[in-house]
Design goal:
This protein is 45% helix and 19% strand. It starts with 11 loop residues before the first strand and ends in a 10-residue tail after the last helix. The protein is built from 10 helices and 10 strands. The protein folds into 2 domains: 12-211, Spore Coat Polysaccharide Biosynthesis Protein SpsA, Chain A; 214-291.
Length: 300
């Protein structure tokens, strides 16, 4: 039986946003050079980097079809929209600069869309480095977030660090330029839901996501997450996210499982660290959610 040529009628643009993270960007671009099927277009939106980012881009331009765009525009939505505007291929995928795409990432995206060009495909992101307490917590939170936002086998949100779809859909909906508190992907996912654009999770479209590695970075990340949840709740009429919800309960269950594992291994210091981080997260989530000034974002 003749093998189906999945790339015959499909090609892929990959959009990457970056700013002053040249080491992470280098790892991300290297992962794209190792793909079983190379992307047809790599659009790098460089948000005014002052480090070695441009040198890294120049090096990898020898191996990848890179389109390098400099922009000092403020706000992730505007930067993402610049990438969407610049894309010329039928399929478009977003990949964060701190992600490392697995070998068949491009191939599996093309496969996933080969029979359905009218849906959004959410890829799976796995937290690393391994055996790191911050990565372990965020890995559990991410899995719980996906489960919490899955209804009847479909997602009700998107996570733009590893998500793909037909370029025509991205160009039609775009990101809401007012959703600048880290909630632009959640907001767009809600509009997809209203417009009945299906969002499916495909775990074989896999990427490793580099998590924050210090206590301050970890807490800053969760403060921003809480602010994004508040931003979304400011205009949702029903099913508000809130900072304490069923997902938070799942996170507590995950904490108990990690504590049990530490206790069985007699790692009692890790038990204390986990409990301390948990209390800090509760505090930072409350602060992030309730000190944000109310700003109503309308669907566009």
């Amino acid at each position: 039986m003749k093998k189906k040529n999945i790339t015959k009628n499909a090609s892929l643009s990959v959009v990457i946003l970056t700013k002053n993270r040249y080491r992470l960007l280098a790892c991300c671009l290297y992962s794209l050079t190792q793909q079983s099927i190379l992307p047809d277009e790599v659009i790098i939106i460089n948000n005014g980097s002052t480090d070695k980012t441009e040198s890294i881009i120049a090096i990898f331009s020898k191996y990848l079809p890179i389109k390098h765009l400099n922009s000092t525009t403020n706000g992730f939505p505007n930067l993402y929209n610049l990438g969407i505007k610049s894309a010329t291929k039928p399929l478009l995928s977003f990949l964060d600069d701190d992600c490392y795409a697995q070998k068949n990432w491009c191939k599996n995206i093309l496969n996933a869309h080969s029979n359905n060009m009218n849906c959004i495909i959410q890829g799976m992101s796995y937290s690393y480095p391994m055996n790191n307490i911050f990565a372990s917590i965020m890995g559990d939170h991410y899995k719980n977030w996906l489960e919490h936002n899955t209804v009847d086998g479909k997602l009700t949100v998107i996570d733009n660090k590893n998500v793909s779809g037909p370029t025509k859909i991205w160009k039609k909906f775009k990101f809401n330029s007012l959703a600048h508190q880290g909630a632009e992907d959640i907001e767009l996912g809600k509009r997809f839901l209203l417009a009945k654009v299906p969002i499916f999770l495909k775990k074989d479209i896999a990427a490793l996501h580099r998590e924050r590695s210090t206590f301050n970075q970890f807490l800053t990340q969760h403060f921003r997450i809480a602010q994004s949840e508040k931003t979304i709740d400011n205009y949702l009429q029903n099913n508000k996210i809130g900072t304490f919800n069923k997902k938070a309960i799942k996170n507590c269950v995950s904490l108990l499982k990690r504590l049990k594992k530490h206790a069985k291994q007699l790692h009692f210091f890790n038990v204390l660290i986990e409990l301390y981080l948990f209390l800090c997260l509760i505090l930072i989530r409350i602060l992030g959610y309730f000190i944000l000034k109310k700003k109503v974002i309308k669907y566009v």
